[in-house]
Amino acid sequence: MNKEVDVYDYMNVIMKQLKKGVLITTKKDDELNTMTISWGKVGLEWNKLIFCSYIRPSRHTYEMLESGEFTINIPLEQSEDIKKIVAHCGSKSGRDTNKFEDLDLTLSEPMNIATPGIKQLPLTLECKVIYRQPQDKEAIFEDVKGGFYKNGNFHEMFYGEIVGAYIAE
Ligand SMILES: Cc1cc2nc3c(=O)[nH]c(=O)nc-3n(C[C@H](O)[C@H](O)[C@H](O)COP(=O)(O)O)c2cc1C
């Protein structure tokens, strides 16, 4: 069962958990993958409520995003299990392993898109990609660039219109 929620009621939770790591889940054809992110933001553009994520082209998730949609999976509390999930999904690639099987993750029933959420991180944002844009490397100030891009691999922004939000129970 999913309980629909208003994203505005969870802004604090989303931003606080993001810093610690949340999951972005993608489904392309029959394949499912998930990875940890801690860069992202919720905002308004074109009068749409958007979750923007920043994905490096080297990630398997980057290829999976050709599907045009993703879910953001956010824990409602921290625990050792959540830390383990975040660490595993942030260090292993879906090219090499099935992270759902590795961690016994349980899927929620999608509501408005084809991609499910993950019950262990129950606050789920369903997002449809409406805009994507590689970062302009010339426009990033040198002191901000720091050590982030020694080997290139500049993040690409994926703007997902939030078309559904629920807590998976
Ligand atoms: C805490 C944490 C936050 C991360 N945030 C991001 C991020 O915002 N963008 C990104 O491209 N990679 C990020 N990563 C790295 C990916 O999660 C990692 O490379 C992952 O193994 C890629 O999985 P995939 O190849 O299955 O897509 C983060 C890793 C950790 C541990």
Structure description:
- With 169 residues, the protein is an alpha+beta fold.
- It has one domain (2-168): Pnp Oxidase, Chain A (Roll), CATH 2.30.110.
- The chain contains five helices and eight strands; from the N terminus they run βαββββαβααβαβ.
- Strands 1, 2, 3, 4, 5, 6, 7 and 8 form an eight-stranded antiparallel β-sheet that branches.
- Strand 2 and strand 3 form a beta hairpin.
- The protein is globular, with a radius of gyration of 15 Å.
- The chain starts with a strand and ends with a strand.
- The model has no long low-confidence stretch (mean pLDDT 97).
- The structure holds flavin mononucleotide.
Assess the beta-strand content as a share of residues.
35-45%
Largest sheet: 8 strands, antiparallel
The counted number of beta strands is: 8
Specify the CATH class. Mainly Beta
Tally of individual helices: 5
Please indicate the count of domains. Answer: 1
The set of bound ligands, ions and cofactors reads: flavin mononucleotide
Would you list the SSEs in sequence order as H and E? EHEEEEHEHHEHE
Q: What overall geometry do the principal axes of the alpha carbons give?
A: globular
The termini sit apart by 5 Å
Tell me the CATH superfamily: Electron Transport, Fmn-binding Protein, Chain A
Which percent bin holds the helix content? 10-25%
Unreliable spans: none
The CATH architecture term is Roll
What's the average pLDDT?
Answer: 97
Q: Find the structural class using helix and strand composition.
A: alpha+beta
Briefly note the CATH topology name: Pnp Oxidase, Chain A
Radius of gyration: 15 Å
